[in-house]
């Protein structure tokens, strides 16, 4: 009893050392390392005040912090946050490039948080990382109470009689690695009889079949495949959880963009009918403009789907270089089945986003779109420098006048083209753009070997790079200006 009181007092003293807001510790450059050193386990969100995703996460994160605080004692895991725009040195130390980025620290060592963004998902993930990987269930009351959690996360339960065997050890090894489900085990054979367990392992969940019995040999690959197949709904509404499943966990997905019209409902029914046949090979998700997620238009823009001509279907191949494939024709069960079969046998043609070719293109900075890329860049003897930008990107806007000035100066070098491409509206095969602005150079005679530009974004550095890399006779700019 005295030890528990002492732990509580020490915890209270530790918390007083840090500013707190809605149950979340607010860390600065001065207090960050103290917090990491104080707590064996601590989760830290790096955020920006203007970030929409951060604002959406805030109430869930705060509620998770409150839930974890209730546990108290030596099992307490605090949640903290750092304004990465104000505490730049801390953000730079952990290479923070997007918001929110969440790190989990174990004895000072950081790992990436790749769980969901709801209160229950955050708490479940932390409980697994900070406690035993699997919870032991001894009685009927234990298992019934534990299975109440199934509404927020699937639960994988091992039913056995002893821990002294390879099957149990493999189960625990998986529990230590896998964050997609919650793990529990029981050595009470009466519980196996009560739940009519035919093998040793059962997945309990709140959707689709409600329960799946594992009937293969107990190996890590078999268990991982089993979880991947059954731990998520066959049809995923596109929300934050789907973002985690599709993008963060890097799964291929076929996505239906639909609405509540008769055509939309018919398309959804066809989509649902074919999903069961392919669920082990690809994720199925759907998005509606009025579903409350606010993701319909952003997802459509990213993946190249129409927001006006709905319903429509796109397939996103993350495992094959982020390729996108557009379904054409009437959406029926049979046509969708053919579409997916053609994808898996490699006979689909990849869809590349492109704006229309501009009617005129005679400004110093040439406009590259998907449809004119080959003519303007590949099928000529010019050297070509392209800035890939996003219309909303602040760094791109800062670069614009410098880039325009560079293009005007280089008009005296007619064999060098200075160009730009809106990478949010156009895709170029073989060119992967992950940040803005990204600048690349195609050199005449070596255009299959793209050169990344990584020097300074000022006129002098651009000119130095081009002078060094051009395949043509360089016209000295100073001499031209003198003349």
From TrEMBL:
Catalytic reaction list: Catalyzes the rearrangement of -S-S- bonds in proteins
InterPro entries, per the entry: PDI_thioredoxin-like_dom (IPR005788), Prot_disulphide_isomerase (IPR005792), Thioredoxin-like_sf (IPR036249), Thioredoxin_CS (IPR017937), Thioredoxin_domain (IPR013766)
Subcellular location: Endoplasmic reticulum lumen
Signal peptide (UniProt feature, chain positions): 1-17
Pfam families membership: Thioredoxin, Thioredoxin_6
Annotated Gene Ontology cellular component terms: endoplasmic reticulum; endoplasmic reticulum lumen
Keyword list, A-Z: Disulfide bond, Endoplasmic reticulum, Isomerase, Redox-active center, Repeat, Signal
Main location: endoplasmic reticulum
One annotated GO biological process: protein folding
Gene3D superfamilies assigned to the protein according to its UniProt record, in alphabetical order: Glutaredoxin
EC number: 5.3.4.1
Residues annotated as domain Thioredoxin: 9-152, 346-471
Key word Isomerase present: yes
UniProt keyword Endoplasmic reticulum, yes or no: yes
MF (Gene Ontology): protein disulfide isomerase activity
PANTHER family assigned to the protein according to its UniProt record, in alphabetical order: PROTEIN DISULFIDE ISOMERASE, PROTEIN DISULFIDE-ISOMERASE
Family of this protein: Belongs to the protein disulfide isomerase family.
Name of the protein in question: Protein disulfide-isomerase
Taxonomic source organism: Paramecium tetraurelia
Classification lineage: Eukaryota, Sar, Alveolata, Ciliophora, Intramacronucleata
